């Protein structure tokens, strides 16, 4: 189930079957998606290849979280002399679980003695399995070495638990650990609290993120107007299934009890719809006859628990006080107080005066006298008034304008008298003389027109006479020089000379810098009302402020003089993988600024290095880019091999890394990895894949015939040699040899035997026959003996060699 190799040991087969049974047993008990392990001990992989194999066939490489899992795997996995890779690596000086990129705490690290060592490049971790010592311990190794792979299939899936629970892996199973406030197998159900009800005279508003009345529900309570909350205003459903406080109550707000000690001469009547002296209670007040209420006659307990007014009081009604003159007498009877309800007053006059009105008055319950107050009056003359523009002084020994009154008249200043100035009230009630007349003194006439202004005159008595006022007003933008108002005085002269109208001044305007240009016009006077100044800036600058100033009627310029600001270009940022340096006479990114861009090592500039902010507020050239420096293109893969490249920035540029690997039967000549450097050159020349060699075959016997084919090179991987014997000989051994991918011939070379006899015997017979027909028998016998001896030695060497090739014997001869 979990093995990739086709050649499995008996122990590996049994372990695979046990894992299958374990998965089936968990499934039969309802434990779906149970956590299980898998491994590969043959073939073996580099660390990255091992992880890719695990991710292809399972979830990922095992990354051991605790001692329990470590011991379980130590006993589970079969022996492997190269051991197994784990999903643990060293990154930036720390050992991490590669799946989560988390640092492994020291207590969870299970290192062998004196491990991990600090040798460079040993950044991957293996676990010792079935080792004589320290089995189940860890060791750091170079990631390029090849080892077995141990993998796991995770039990926790994306939908194993709800978002309110955490899936916890266990060996062979998983559980859902619910967050506080949630329950159920998958933590999908929020805990429910007891239902709430609205308080009487109140209401609630709730927020239920997980359902009504469930965990984290929040209810805020409020009372109706006139009621107050007793208790906690907001309740929350806790993870325990209880509200954290009882439901609050709504009580009617209470007013203070009334103090009715001030209403002894009246009465009070109260209505209490909820409770005595509480919200909406109303009290009405009434006073007895002859008394009046002081304050409001009705008060109410409002929603704040306060009476709308203070308790009123009943006071006796009073009639207006009577002050009778000394020319008469007044006698009063007062039961409840002077001039109060039920008081009675009697009136009489002295000799020479007569009573006008009733002689008895009574103070009524309405607070008014029953009749108008009488008086004792002396005989009267007609009333006199001051004549126009004059003052009158009178003496009244017995009363105003009465018998013996004397009046004298005097004209006011600015007027002269026409008539008699004294008159007297006679005993018959008549005046002795008519009142005189007073006439106003005249002033000189004024011109009606005023340049840039106007005149408005008012005549109190007669045109341009004493009391006449003339106001002068200038048109808008002009200021009065002289007094605004002239008055015709008592002497018959004007108070001042007539004024004139002059234009207002705003003050001179001066440009703030040499880059600001100004052009002004003055229709009335320099920098006065109506003057206008226009502003422009030199090339490369823009106006900051108004371009036109005018002197207003108020004597102020409509705005401050503008300034010329250097035009600003859009802000620039350094190119990616580069740096920009900017400077200028008017500040960064302003008119005249220059920016120079450079690239980091390994990158080249694409565009113009320098750009300048022009007078139009634009950069003279576009911002350049930094492109990764390219390396020469590589062929897709070496012949009889493969190439795998990763490109950090762009294809075949700085930072690109290419790994090379040869097909079976071929050996890499050159570096396995090439890196594109900052100079734009590869770190090495590309490698090539050369076929492995098995060693040359050289036949020495003339009876053995050999025919070889070399598709890839002499005596290299794929070479085949076919053997036959000459007539009269038979082949002893394989008739075909081929050079395998491992660099060895598949078998030993064959031998040629005389048909029916051993080779040595056949040679002797051959030499015997030759002696009968030759002249040199002794020479042939010696030659035959030498050949037999050499062949026996060679056969002995060949028969003792089980496998052969270029690793042990550079060539084979027979």
TrEMBL record:
Subcellular location(s) per record: Cell membrane
Keywords for this protein: Calcium, Cell adhesion, Cell membrane, Disulfide bond, EGF-like domain, Glycoprotein, Lectin, Membrane, Metal-binding, Repeat, Signal, Sushi, Transmembrane, Transmembrane helix
Residues in C-type lectin domain copies: 32-152
A Pfam family reported for this protein in Swiss-Prot or TrEMBL: Lectin_C
Domain called Sushi: residue spans: 191-252, 253-316, 317-378, 379-440, 441-503, 504-566, 567-628, 629-691, 692-754
Any one GO CC term of the record: plasma membrane
Cleaved signal peptide residues: 1-32
Example of a GO biological process term: cell adhesion
Membrane topology, record value: Single-pass type I membrane protein
Molecular function via GO: carbohydrate binding; metal ion binding
Family: Belongs to the selectin/LECAM family.
Function in brief: Cell-surface glycoprotein having a role in immunoadhesion. Mediates in the adhesion of blood neutrophils in cytokine-activated endothelium through interaction with SELPLG/PSGL1. May have a role in capillary morphogenesis.
Subunit and interaction comment: Interacts with SELPLG/PSGL1 and PODXL2 through the sialyl Lewis X epitope. SELPLG sulfation appears not to be required for this interaction.
Name the UniProt record assigns to this protein: E-selectin
Species whose genome carries this gene: Xyrichtys novacula
Lineage: Eukaryota, Metazoa, Chordata, Craniata, Vertebrata
């Amino acid at each position: 189930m979990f093995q990739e190799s086709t050649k499995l040991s008996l122990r590996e087969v049994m372990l695979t079957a046990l894992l299958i049974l374990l998965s089936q047993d968990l499934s039969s008990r309802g434990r779906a998606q149970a956590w299980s392990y898998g491994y590969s001990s043959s073939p073996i992989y580099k660390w990255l290849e091992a992880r890719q194999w695990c991710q292809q066939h399972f979830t990922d490489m095992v990354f051991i979280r605790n001692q329990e899992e470590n011991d379980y795997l130590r006993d589970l996995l079969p022996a492997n002399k190269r051991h197994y890779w784990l999903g643990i690596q060293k990154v930036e000086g720390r050992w991490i679980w590669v799946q989560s990129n988390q640092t492994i705490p020291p207590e969870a690290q299970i290192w062998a003695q004196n491990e991990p060592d600090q040798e460079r490049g040993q950044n991957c971790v293996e676990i010792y399995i079935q080792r004589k010592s320290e089995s189940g311990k860890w060791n750091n190794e170079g990631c390029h070495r090849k080892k077995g792979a141990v993998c796991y299939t995770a039990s926790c899936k994306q939908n194993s638990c709800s978002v309110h629970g955490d899936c916890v892996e266990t060996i062979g199973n998983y559980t859902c650990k619910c967050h506080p406030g949630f329950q159920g197998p998958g933590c999908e159900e929020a805990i429910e609290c007891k239902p709430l009800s609205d308080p009487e005279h109140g209401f609630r508003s709730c927020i239920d993120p997980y359902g009504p009345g469930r965990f984290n529900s929040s209810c805020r309570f409020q009372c109706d107007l006139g009621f107050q909350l007793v208790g906690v205003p907001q309740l929350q459903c806790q993870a325990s299934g209880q509200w954290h406080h009882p439901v609050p109550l709504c009580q009617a707000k209470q007013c203070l009890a009334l103090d009715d000690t001030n209403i002894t001469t009246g009465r009070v009547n109260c209505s209490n719809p909820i409770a005595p002296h509480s919200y909406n209670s109303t009290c009405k007040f009434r006073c007895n006859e002859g008394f009046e209420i002081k304050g409001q006659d009705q008060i109410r307990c409002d929603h704040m628990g306060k009476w709308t007014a203070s308790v009123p009081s009943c006071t006796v009604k009073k009639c207006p006080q009577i002050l009778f003159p000394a020319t008469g007498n007044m006698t009063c009877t007062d039961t409840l107080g002077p001039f109060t309800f039920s008081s009675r007053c009697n009136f009489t006059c002295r000799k020479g005066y007569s009573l006008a009105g009733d002689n008895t008055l009574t103070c009524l319950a309405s607070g008014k006298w029953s009749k108008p107050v009488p008086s004792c009056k002396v005989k009267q003359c007609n009333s006199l008034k001051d004549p126009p523009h004059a003052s009158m002084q009178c003496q009244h020994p017995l009363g105003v304008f009465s018998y013996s009154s004397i009046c004298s008249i005097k004209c006011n200043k600015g007027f002269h008298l026409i008539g008699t100035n004294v008159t007297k009230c006679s005993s018959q009630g008549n005046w002795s003389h008519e009142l005189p007349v007073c006439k106003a003194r005249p002033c000189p006439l004024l011109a009606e027109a005023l340049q840039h202004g106007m005149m408005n005159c008012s005549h109190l008595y007669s045109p341009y006479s004493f009391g006449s006022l003339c106001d002068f007003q200038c048109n808008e933008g002009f200021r009065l020089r002289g007094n605004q108002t002239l008055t015709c005085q008592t002497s018959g002269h004007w108070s001042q000379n007539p004024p004139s109208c002059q234009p207002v001044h705003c003050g001179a305007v001066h440009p703030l810098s040499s880059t600001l240009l100004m052009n002004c016009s003055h229709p009335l006077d320099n920098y006065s009302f109506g003057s206008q100044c226009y502003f422009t800036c030199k090339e490369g600058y823009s106006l900051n402020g108004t371009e036109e100033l005018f002197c207003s009627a108020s004597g102020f310029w409509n705005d401050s003089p503008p300034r010329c600001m250097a035009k600003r270009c859009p802000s620039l940022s350094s190119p990616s993988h580069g740096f920009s340096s900017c400077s200028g006479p008017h500040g960064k990114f302003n008119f005249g600024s220059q920016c120079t861009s450079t690239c980091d090592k390994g990158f080249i500039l694409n565009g113009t290095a320098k750009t300048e902010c022009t007078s139009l507020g634009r950069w003279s050239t576009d911002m350049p880019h930094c492109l990764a420096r390219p390396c020469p293109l590589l062929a897709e893969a070496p012949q009889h091999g493969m190439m795998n490249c990763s490109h950090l920035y762009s294809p075949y540029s700085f930072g690109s890394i290419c790994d090379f690997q040869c097909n079976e039967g071929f050996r890499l000549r050159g570096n396995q990895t090439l890196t594109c450097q900052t100079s734009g050159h590869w770190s090495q020349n590309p490698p090539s894949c050369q076929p492995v060699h098995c060693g040359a075959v050289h036949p020495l016997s003339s009876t053995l015939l050999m025919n070889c084919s070399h598709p890839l090179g002499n005596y290299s991987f794929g070479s085949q040699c076919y053997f036959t014997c000459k007539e009269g000989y038979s082949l002893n051994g394989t008739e075909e040899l081929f050079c395998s991918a491992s660099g060895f011939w598949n078998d030993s070379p064959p031998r040629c035997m005389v048909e029916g006899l051993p080779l040595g015997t056949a040679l002797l017979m051959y030499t015997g026959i030759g002696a009968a027909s030759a002249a040199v028998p002794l020479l042939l016998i010696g030659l035959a003996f030498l050949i037999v001896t050499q062949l026996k030695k060679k056969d002995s060497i060949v028969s003792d060699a089980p496998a052969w090739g270029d690793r042990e014997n550079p060539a084979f001869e027979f």
